Each structure stands twice: as C-alpha cells, then as structure tokens.
Amino acid sequence: MNRIFFRFFVLVMLSITVATFAIYFATSRLFGDPLDDIARRQAAAQIFLLEQYIDKAPADEWLVRLNKVREVSDVKLDLVPLTSVRASLPAHQHAALNRGELVLDTANKAFYRRVDLHGESYIGSAEEVIHAQELPIDIGLALEMEAVRYVIVALFLLVPIALWSRSHWLGLQELSRVADEVGAGRLSARARFKTWAIIYPLAERLNHMTGRIEGLLDAQKNLLHSVSHELRTPIARLEFALELLRSAAENPALEQRIVAMEGDVAELNGLVNELLGMIRLDSRQALQEASFELAPALLGCVDSLDPLAARPQVRLDSALGSMTGDRRLLLRAVGNLLRNAQKYGNGHIALSARRAEGVEIVVEDDGPGIPEAERGKVFEPFYRLDRSRDRSTGGFGLGLSIAQKAVALHGGTIAVEQSAMGGARFVIALPA
After folding, report:
1. pLDDT in tens, 154-186
2. How many helices and strands (H and E) does the chain possess?
3. 171: Cβ contacts below 8 Å, ≥ 6 apart
4. What is the distance between the alpha carbons of residues 338 and 311, in angstroms, rounded to a whole number?
C-alpha cells in the first residue's frame, strides 16, 4: 500500500517538473527566452544610460557622453566593428542587430547594439557597434529564485494532496484488513466508515458482498447440517430393519444380499459423518488448542492405521519438539493422507517430519501419482481422479478436503507434488 502512494507522489513531482519545463519552452517560443528578460532587467541601468543619456546627445556630444559614462560606470563600453560582431553572434541574432535592437549575450554578461543605422552620430558610426561588458547579470541567482518558486508551488500542491491521499490510504488499509479477515474465514468482518468518507460507497459495497457471502454460506451449512441429521434417522431405521431381516432369514442367498445392503448403509452412514465433520471444520470454533509433543502423536497416528495394509517408513526429526494446536484435527489430517497413500500406493509409503522455520510433515507413496493438471482439484470436496471413480477404491472424495481444512485452521498449508518414490508427495507446512 505504501508503494502505491509513493509512486503517486513521485508521479505528482514529475508532473510538476514537466509542467515547469513545458511553461518555460512555451514562453520562450511565444515571447522570447525568459532568461534574456531577466538579464535585461538586471542590466536596466546601463541600458537606460545608453538609450536615455548617450543616444539623446547631439552628434558633436555623442562620444563625449559615452566617455563620461565610461568614467563613472563599472561596465566596460567599447566601440567594435560591425563586421566582427556579425561574425561572433549566432545567425538568428543578426536580424535584430541589423534593425538596431539591443542584443544580449547573457552567457558573457554583455550586450551589443549598433551606434546608429545611418551614420548620424559621427562619421563611420553606421559601421560600429557598442559592446558593453561586465554587466551586473547573475542568471544563477535568477535560477535559484525560479527553483524557490518551484519548491514553493510543489509544497503548496503536495500538502493538500498528501492530506487527501492520507484519508484514502487509511481507508484502503481498513479495506485491506477486512479483505484479509474475510479471506481467513471471518465473514462477520465489516468496514466501518463515516458516511462523508470518500471511500464509503466502496466500503458499503464490500460489506454488502461480504454479508451476502456470509448469508449464503450459513444457508449452505444449515442445509447440509439439517440434511445430514435428517439422513441419520432413516439410516438408523434401515440398520435396525436389516438386523430384524437377518434374524428372520434362513436363505443363504438372502444373507449375502443383506450383507451387501449393510455395507451400503455403513457407507451412507460414513458419508453423513464426513459431511458433519466438514461442517464443523468451517469454523475456528472446531479447534480445541493445546500443547502436545509432535513425534509421539505422529507415531500414534501410524499405529491407528489398518494393520493389514502397507506400513509406512517413518523418519522423524529428533528436534520436532512440541506445538500448540488441535491434536485430534492435525492427526486426522495426517491419517487421511496416510490412508490415501495406503490405498493408492504399491506397497511402499513414507512419513517424515522435520522442524525448520516451521513444522513440515510429508507423506509420500510409490503409486501412480497425481497429474499436475489435477493437483489443485484433489482438495475439492467429492472430487476423485478418473482412475478412482469406483467408490470401493476412491472413497467419498472428502478425505483430502478435510485434511486441507484442518491444516488451514492451524494457519498452515498443504500441497501435492511428485514423489521421488514415483507416486504422490503431500507436504503439510505448519507455522512454528
């Protein structure tokens, strides 16, 4: 955010600078060089003496008055040939000199002007030029004055812009805070502004959008929660009815059908439990934080796996230490990844954990892996890869989603990569 306003101030300063140069060049083009005008004002006394005292002398007194001015003035006044002056001046100043106008040489603190055009001052005066040198011209001072003007204008522009920008900056900081909270799942966050604030309309739209999202998610959670609870009642009745049917049936073929139906009911019951678990994970209220030792917890998670499936190779850092969080949720996330590896691996899976800047837990297998194009989708609820559409191997598609939610509630992330073993590599990164 600070970078945005820094760039804005730099842009304003550049604009003022460009405008200053544009004014200078436009003025020079239309009205002549402003520096020449400044130099002419600084040499006004010498020009006045020439035009009002020397020039108005009779022909027989012209040179006398010129010599008097030489005696009392610090400026050096010389008479030089017209031809030599034409050779020393730039071509664009020749016309002004030929018309008898005063031509300034600002860089050398001098000016030129013909004595007269018709030789009326004295014999040969039409071919001579007055060359005044060592004039009291100080363009550096003029430039310093212009710089001071520029700084004053810039300050008077930047102060109100800074005050105006500060209100925007504070408003955007508040909106950024609200956006971060909403992104972290706290949908009750709202931006509070006075009605006269410039950013108020944007804040109201953000609050309205957040409120709608919160309402939609609450409605979705309530619906899912209600449906899940409502499903439990007919599931319980089906389980009870199957038990009664088994006790009354003596046909072996019917017994097989009953076993298959019980499997379907158990699967449906498992799905409902997973859905209820997902709903509870949608809020930080699901967390029951406490400090626990990480290494024993991970070893206990390994012990809870199916003993008939492949056992993971365990490599735990000796300095894992303890961490604060919901032990049950974190172990459920790791357990889901391990069971996923058991399901799709070819007999070799591994669990490792280390502590660096944070805690990193890795689960990998030697299975077929996950295509790169689908790695971002496997954490979506009910998403299953094409090779696992059969629910007997693919499950409900909720295990990875639950793992991601559990890790996110602890401020961590979970990512999937290609394993050196050939299959999938899931990396859980948790803050220290």
Report:
1. 788 778 877 777 777 788 888 888 888 887 777
2. 13, 11
3. 193, 197, 198, 199, 203
4. 9
